[in-house]
Structure to design on (189 residues):
């Protein structure tokens, strides 16, 4: 997704993962955040959690493109947005879908958005794929146009809600494929 190079009034810091074997595995980078395009949301990361997929990436058990900003589990706060049709307000606490999908391909139309032919995954994308602020190990993230967001009520703490968009979503997806239980018992392996 193209971004204007003109500096936004907000600066951010991101932890860039350069890959296993690089001289500097992680490097902090400070810079201005690009201006938003239509449908995008600029959010500030309140709390990010560490998923095992991130651990697998930094230990070499999972290969991801580099350089990148890892992290896809977080509670964020709206800074500004370009979604005029939404009811989002500055300061709203959100969680967001781990992936952004097109909504129009065969996979999306059959409910398998995670298999979208144009899939973009936060925390798993190369630094130059989009804004460069596309992982949770940063002060800010630019959420893309097709990213689903959910407001988090104040009664739920950031610590409790941070892993919702990955661990809970993964569990709920798996539950859709488990046969209906007749005796209320399940075997988990």
């Amino acid at each position: 997704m193209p971004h204007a190079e003109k500096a936004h009034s907000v600066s951010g810091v991101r932890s860039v993962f350069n890959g296993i074997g690089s001289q500097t595995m992680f490097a902090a980078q400070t810079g201005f955040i690009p201006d938003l395009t239509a449908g995008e949301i600029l959010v500030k990361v309140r709390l990010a959690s560490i998923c095992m997929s991130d651990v697998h990436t930094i230990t070499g058990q999972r290969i991801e493109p580099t350089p990148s900003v890892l992290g896809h589990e977080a509670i964020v706060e709206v800074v500004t947005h370009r979604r005029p049709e939404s009811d989002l307000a500055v300061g709203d606490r959100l969680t967001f879908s781990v992936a952004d999908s097109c909504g129009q391909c065969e996979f999306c139309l059959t409910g398998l958005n995670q298999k979208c032919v144009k899939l973009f995954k936060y925390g798993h994308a190369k630094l130059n794929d989009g804004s460069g602020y596309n992982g949770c190990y940063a002060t800010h993230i630019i959420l893309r146009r097709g990213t689903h967001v959910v407001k988090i009520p104040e009664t739920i703490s950031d610590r409790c809600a941070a892993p919702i968009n990955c661990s809970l979503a993964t569990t709920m997806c798996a539950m859709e494929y488990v046969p209906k239980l007749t005796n209320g018992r399940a075997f988990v392996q």
